[in-house]
Amino acid sequence: MRNSRNYLMIFFLIVAGSIMGNIIGGFFSDIFPVLSISESIFFGPAVLDLNFLSITFGFTFSLSLAGLLGVIVVLIIFKIFY
Prior knowledge:
The protein is α+β, with helices and mostly antiparallel strands and 82 residues long. Helix content is 54%, strand content 28%. It is flat, with a radius of gyration of 17 Å.
């Protein structure tokens, strides 16, 4: 049980670090334009139409350099304090 909790906490830390890094990178992108470099991975919309129900699936993942730095900082802090 403890290992599954650790994996869940690491997942949430990675997501939080990416979000915080992107927010901070957005503020400093005028000063340091390299922080706004990003790559996107996406799967276009796929539609499942069942005649009475229509569901559209899609996925987009975008990671910038600032988000990656945020993830690295959060994981280092986690390693130090946990």
